């Protein structure tokens, strides 16, 4: 599909009233500028609209996520980043007032097809949340739980292997190998977040969604997660929501800028942070609002 490119010098029609703390002179426009589409999409989203009751949170978003890329989603608080991310593994299904329309294709499969079973979908598209949320179980059980319910291991040695490999990939093995049977909740915040990453990796997902995974972590734990993202990219496709522009710049290949529920710009990360195409992106990254 061909991307609709609109330069910032071109006319972008005013279609909403801007809140007073935002640049009044910048027009939103209807089309996403830049490169929202990919040659090798792992996921393809088309004409996505999301409502909570009467209130619309996402407006006609079109976006591809390429295989093995890290895509960062940025934008001011309330612009719809989490809402959009949660659509990607149908996490919004649990919110009663939430209505999602549009197409969501994973490989060639429509993930909102009435026959789509949510459990295997969530194994293929895993999620790591803002606040680390280990189960009240041992470190071992936190990681083993998913493979057990998905029937990925028939014998204990296989399960042991999955637990070790997942903890190694999450960069946590050396720190916990001697206390696998102590509580996951007894780990530090940064360790808990890596445990949650190990838990999501354990079921061999294809896509990992991360919603501000470092916002509760100190700079050292954050650096570890960022290193991990760079490694995980070899095997997984990653979409990460972050409020840290430095983080987006460090970890992602492309960056998507959302504003008031619209996807304003998607471009190579370097481009977004050095020479954004849309004035709204520029205003945000230079700190004029947000
Ligand atoms: N469960 C919900 N019920 C009703 N409205 C919601 C719900 N969740 C989000 N919203 C609304 O949808 C809009 C987008 O919210 P969302 O949480 O997706 O934004 P966000 O970009 O992730 O913000 P933040 O950076 O603060 O996390 C907001 O106006 C928000 O109030
Ligand atoms: Mg959010």
If you had to describe this structure to a student in words, what would you say it looks like?
By secondary structure, the chain is of the alpha/beta class. It has a domain at 36-134 and 205-285: Rossmann fold (3-Layer(aba) Sandwich), CATH 3.40.50.300. Helix content is 31%, strand content 24%. The protein is built from 10 helices and 11 strands. The strands form 2 sheets. Strands 1-11-10-4-9-8-7 form a 7-stranded mixed sheet, with helices on both faces. It has a 4-stranded antiparallel sheet with strand order 3-2-5-6, with helices on one face. A hairpin with a 2-residue loop joins strand 10 (254-259) and strand 11 (262-268). Helix 3 crosses helix 4. The longest helix is centred in the middle third of the chain and has 14 residues, at 156-169. Magnesium ion binds at residues 81-82, 211.
List the topology elements.
Blueprint: E1 33-34, E2 41-52, E3 55-66, E4 70-74, H1 81-87, E5 98-106, E6 109-110, H2 118-124, E7 125-128, H3 139-149, H4 156-169, H5 173-176, H6 189-201, E8 207-211, H7 219-232, E9 237-241, H8 245-251, E10 254-259, E11 262-268, H9 269-274, H10 279-285
Parallel strand pairs: 1-11, 4-9, 4-10, 7-8, 8-9
Antiparallel strand pairs: 2-3, 2-5, 5-6, 10-11
Helix pairs in contact: 3-4, 3-6, 4-6, 6-7
Bound molecules: adenosine-5'-triphosphate and magnesium ion.
Adenosine-5'-triphosphate binds next to helix 1.
């Amino acid at each position: 599909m061909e991307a609709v490119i609109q330069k910032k010098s071109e006319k972008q029609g005013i279609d909403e009233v801007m809140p007073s703390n935002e640049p009044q002179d910048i027009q939103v426009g209807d089309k996403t500028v830049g490169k929202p589409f990919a040659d090798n999409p792992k996921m393809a989203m088309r004409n996505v609209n999301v409502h909570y009751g009467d209130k619309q949170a996402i407006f006609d978003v079109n976006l591809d996520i390429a295989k093995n890329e890290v895509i960062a989603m940025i934008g001011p608080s309330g612009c719809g980043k989490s809402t959009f991310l949660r659509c990607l593994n149908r996490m919004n299904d649990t919110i009663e007032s939430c209505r999602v329309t549009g197409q969501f294709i994973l490989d060639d499969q429509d993930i909102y097809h009435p026959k789509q079973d949510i459990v295997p979908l969530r194994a293929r598209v895993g999620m790591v949340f803002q606040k680390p949320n280990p189960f009240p179980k041992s470190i071992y059980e936190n990681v083993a739980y998913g493979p057990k319910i998905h029937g990925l291991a028939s014998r204990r040695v296989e399960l042991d292997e999955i637990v070790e490999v997942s903890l190694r990939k999450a960069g946590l093995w050396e720190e916990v190998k001697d206390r696998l049977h102590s509580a996951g909740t007894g780990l530090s915040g940064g360790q808990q977040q890596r445990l949650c990453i190990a838990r999501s990796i354990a079921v061999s997902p294809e896509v990992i969604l991360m919603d501000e995974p470092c916002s509760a972590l100190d700079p050292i734990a954050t650096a570890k997660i960022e290193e991990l993202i760079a490694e995980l990219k070899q095997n997984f496709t990653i979409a990460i929501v972050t409020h840290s522009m430095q983080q987006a710049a460090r970890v992602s290949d492309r960056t998507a800028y959302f504003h008031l529920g619209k996807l304003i710009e998607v471009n190579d990360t370097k481009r977004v942070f050095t020479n954004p195409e849309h004035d709204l992106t520029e205003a945000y990254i230079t700190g004029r609002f947000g």
